[in-house]
Amino acid sequence: MSQESRPFIANTKCECGHQNPTGTVLCEACGKPLTEEAESQSILEMRYDGVARRSQKSNPGVIDRVWNFFSSVKVAIYLIILTLVGSMFGTIFPQESTFLNIDPSVYYKQEYGKIGHIYYLLGFSHTYTSWWFVLLLVMIGASLVICSLDRVLPLYKALSRQRIPKHMSFLTRQKVAYQTPIAEEGAEWVEKVKPLIRKKGYRVRTDGGTLLAEKQRFSRWGPYVLHIGLIVFLLAVLARGLPGMHMDVHLGFPEGDVKKIPDTSYYLKNDGFTVEFYTEDDMPEEFKGKGKVLPKKFETKAILYMCEADCDDLTKEPKLVEVDRHNIEVNHPLNYKGLMAYQFDYDLTPVIRSVSPVLVNAKTGEEYGKFNLNIRDPEREYKVGAYTLKLKSKFSDFGLNDQGEPANMSSSPNAPAFLFLIHGPDLPESGVQYFYFPKQIDKERFQQDALNTQLAGGTIPLNLDVKNMEDVDLSKSTTYLNVRVDKVMPFIWIGAAIGMLGLIMGFYFQHRRIWLRIDNGMLTLGAHTNKNWFGLRREISAVLKQMNIEVEEKSLENNRGSKP
């Protein structure tokens, strides 16, 4: 192969004999500048000690380009700014998770108009769980990992393999540098100064007439410890999206009902609710005479159950075992193995739990029998005499949409309604559709008879009606609880603690190094720190004075204007 056809290979071997990786700015062994840019600097740039990083690799491939993208500090800053801007959009209007029993597709338009509807359509109503926000968090985490690995591994290699003798240009181009003639032999003078430097807390190593003193190297790892803490924090935040790891919902529990807590194997029963109101005598002064009714204390007697069998079998009743009892008050939640239920609100309006309507012939008034209709969990089919009632649709909050069609306006049981298909004697083979509203106010509001007449295409052959109040099972009150499960919170605190440790390491400690060499009676000293240069100069000045070398602290600052 001719010399012209050979690929170019950069020669990174220093004159001291050390072979440096491609991209190294300062020789890992002696510190001699290896690039033209470093040679032109009057004061050396000591960032990362001039070590080669993967992001500086020449002729990068696809993986290297991805690595270079995420290893950029500018990219990390842009990602953080985008995340902050996204978070700001999430605060314009309240998030869906802050409400109890609303239909967001209707709520934002009704409450905030067209802007609110656009806000909902763009997905900002659930900003912090949206795919793009989660993606930004993942990208920030990737940037933290790659930024750290790109710098910490080469830096650790350079610092752990430091050689004591340093090149003259390395010493004279430090921000703190000093040269002076001495009369003693180099090795002898170094042995005398060694204990004085150790008293300042330095770890001292010598090699003949050269010396390296170093302390608090661990402070260099402070930013990377902080990165580890942030990574743990981000992973914990992202883990909240996994099933069973985090829950923060508001649920209504009618008195006497046993209700399943979503995404768990737990059931909770409101075994009784009591509320005590302020009297006029013990009312707080600021509310006296204003005619307000204020609750003094409200309490839910809660029983917590765990499902042991038939939990997901809709055809069977789940087998429940009581695991805890607690009287829930404000600031005194039920707490069982990380599941917490806080008293949030209450409603003293009676709620219908079930009704037992009678099937009646609309013409003759003949009664065919009655059945029990559970409002929350109705059966799919009921047999009443010779008639069969099949449940076609259930509405928890009945209403009419913009097209005038029956629709469920929300998940709250504000206006329950049931659409049955009735089969039996003297009815068409296809059956007759029949709307039933358990509440009398809803019967009148939605004109149950007129609606059923329209569905039947004529006279209504049958009616459903409740004959007496004994056939209505009422819940006297509903208590609203804020149910929380947060299994990742300990990891969030761990991440925060690790991050705080990194901040302390980086802010309150300084990595200080002092190099010196004696050549033919000339002492050359160079020193570097990542912060607090005043303290470093003060320590060096004090040591030199003990060696009978008078030097002002300010004179130790290197004011070179050009390279030697």
Structure overview:
The protein is an alpha+beta fold. The chain has 4 domains: 53-158, no CATH class; 167-216 and 510-556, TATA-Binding Protein; 246-351 and 478-486, no CATH class; 357-465, no CATH class. 29% of the residues lie in helices and 28% in strands. The protein contains 12 helices and 25 strands. β19 and β20 (432-436) form a beta hairpin. α5 runs antiparallel to α8 and α8 (222-239) runs antiparallel to α11.
Produce the secondary structure layout.
Layout: H1 36-39, H2 62-71, H3 73-89, H4 104-121, H5 131-160, H6 168-172, E1 176-181, H7 186-198, E2 203-207, E3 210-215, H8 222-239, E4 246-254, E5 258-260, E6 266-277, E7 295-309, E8 319-328, E9 334-336, E10 339-347, E11 351-355, E12 358-361, E13 367-370, E14 373-374, E15 381-384, E16 387-395, E17 398-400, E18 406-408, E19 417-423, E20 432-436, H9 440-445, H10 448-456, E21 462-465, E22 472-475, E23 478-486, H11 489-508, E24 512-519, E25 522-529, H12 533-546
Antiparallel strand pairs: 1-25, 2-3, 3-24, 4-23, 5-6, 6-7, 7-8, 9-10, 10-23, 11-14, 11-22, 12-13, 12-21, 15-16, 16-19, 17-18, 19-20, 24-25
Helix pairs in contact: 2-5, 3-5, 5-8, 8-11
